[in-house]
Each structure stands twice: as structure tokens, then as C-alpha cells.
Write a structure and sequence with these properties.
alpha+beta; 6-stranded mixed beta sheet; 9 strands; 41% helix; disordered N terminus
Length: 265
């Protein structure tokens, strides 16, 4: 089903990012979301954590710091980051199209509403003896944030900014391909140029994240689909795709710069 393939390709569901970290979990006042309960399944080696929005605002993303204790006192500490702004952007893209109803059935409006709970499934190692989890970053739909973990907040913002930067770079390549009136398949041309950009980036060493190959690859996949179709006007189809991509950027941009309103400095 084409709709589901697009969702998977662009990862517009709540995205999960896991980072190792060394600091201890410290007691701090709860912010706009909390891990209310959790359940350990020793057979499946999973934790099901119930995250509740205890704020009065819609949430677009959050970070959970996790500490797992095993036999002999061995500790595994890491973070789980969940971000849904891609879902918001996708819903804007499909607004008014045949895919909108199906998208909203799967995603709702893309927001984590006040009073609502969500489940996070966390894989653990056998022999878990103790589990601690604290929500230490919350990003809101009104472009504000609360955080008691500033490093995690910066990672969330960095992820959003790099997604935007990568999509803008891809859009510039598409515009250049469309600008050549003699190119009968500008989608294929753009796909090749974006792939070259990915190859160059992958061949280099990076100390900071300034490009998202996964985001660019998702765009390539869609360009290849346009190129492979027997359309009487591939150029028009690519122009429509570019318009959707620009709309994606417009929706995402305000959420890449958040104002911190609470939490530790």
C-alpha cells in the first residue's frame, strides 16, 4: 500500500533515538510529562512504560533518561527520545488529498494531548533488578520547552534543525533540475544529485551532525517513484512534490527553535 510505504520511508511516526549517557538520574521537579507506571516482562525482556501528559498543552516530543540495574550492581544508563513533528508536517502535506482520511486514522492530529497517556516499549537485558525512568525534556506545540536535561534538549533541537537543512538542500537540487527545460526526467536527475550528496557526506568524518542521510534517502525514494511512473507530465508531478516538500519545511520550521520556559539551567 503506497500510503504506508511513504509513512515508513519518511519515519513520520513518533521517532525513537537512544543515546548512551553517564550522569546519574537525579531527583528533580516533574515537568509536563511523567513516567506514571511501568511493567517488566522478564520473558520478553521488555519494559512497558506509561508516559502521561500532565501539562495543559499539546506535546510534540520528549526525552526519557533511563537507568537499569542488573546483578552485581551493573548499571546501564541511556536515553529514549520521541519526536512527532514529522507527523505534523506529513499531515499538512496530505491535507485536502485522498490520503488525508487514512493518515488521520493512523496519526490523529499528530499531537500528544493533555491528560493522554502513551506506551513506550523499552528493550532490556535478562536479569533486570531495578528500573528508573524520568522524563527530563518536553517540547510543546506552542514552540516552548521544559527541560532538566539541557544536553537532551539540544539533541532534540539538533535533530529537527538537521532535518530541515537536509530537506532544504534536497529542494534546492530539485529546483535546479526543474530549471533545465531540456531535462525530460528532472526527478531522476535530482535523485542522482541527492544520492551524490549522501555519498560525499558518508565518505567524510563528522564531529557534528549537519546532514541527515536518512531524510535525504526518503526524498530519493519518492523521486524515483515519480520518475518510474508513466506520467504524461513528470515535470508537473515533480513540481507538485516540491510544493509539498516546501509545505513540510514551513510546518517544521517553528518547532526547530524552542523557548525554554522551565527546568534547571
Amino acid at each position: 500500500m503506497r500510503y504506508r510505504r511513504i509513512i515508513s520511508r519518511n519515519a513520520i511516526f513518533w521517532l525513537l533515538f537512544v543515546f548512551a549517557f553517564s550522569r546519574s538520574l537525579q531527583a528533580s521537579p516533574p515537568i509536563g510529562a511523567v513516567v506514571q507506571t511501568w511493567h517488566y516482562d522478564p520473558q520478553a525482556n521488555t519494559i512497558t512504560a506509561q508516559v502521561v501528559n500532565v501539562s495543559t498543552k499539546d506535546i510534540t516530543g520528549y526525552n526519557i533518561s533511563i537507568k537499569e540495574t542488573y546483578a552485581g550492581g551493573r548499571v546501564n544508563s541511556h536515553e529514549l527520545m520521541t519526536d512527532a513533528v514529522g507527523a505534523l508536517a506529513f499531515l499538512q502535506e496530505v491535507q485536502g488529498t485522498a490520503n488525508e482520511d487514512n493518515a488521520r486514522k493512523q496519526l490523529g492530529d499528530g499531537l500528544f494531548h493533555p491528560g493522554v497517556s502513551r506506551k513506550e516499549i523499552i528493550g532490556v537485558q535478562p536479569g533486570l533488578q531495578n528500573f528508573e525512568a524520568v522524563v527530563d525534556v518536553v517540547a510543546y506545540a506552542d514552540q516552548t520547552a521544559e527541560a532538566t536535561n539541557n544536553d537532551a534538549l539540544q539533541r532534540l533541537l539538533s535533530h529537527r534543525k538537521v532535518t530541515l537543512t537536509s530537506r532544504r538542500a534536497a529542494n534546492d537540487i530539485i529546483k535546479a533540475a526543474l530549471a533545465n527545460p531540456n531535462d525530460s526526467d528532472p526527478a531522476a536527475t535530482a535523485a542522482t544529485k541527492i544520492q551524490e550528496r549522501i555519498n560525499v557526506w558518508n565518505a567524510q568524518r563528522h564531529t557534528t551532525l549537519d546532514f541527515a542521510p536518512g531524510e535525504a534517502q526518503g526524498i530519493i525514494d519518492e523521486l524515483k517513484e515519480i520518475s518510474s511512473q508513466r506520467l504524461s507530465d513528470k515535470r508537473n508531478a515533480l513540481t507538485q512534490f516540491l510544493a509539498k516538500s516546501e509545505k513540510h519545511i514551513t510546518t517544521l520550521s517553528p518547532h526547530a527553535n524552542l523557548t525554554k520556559i522551565a527546568g534547571q539551567p
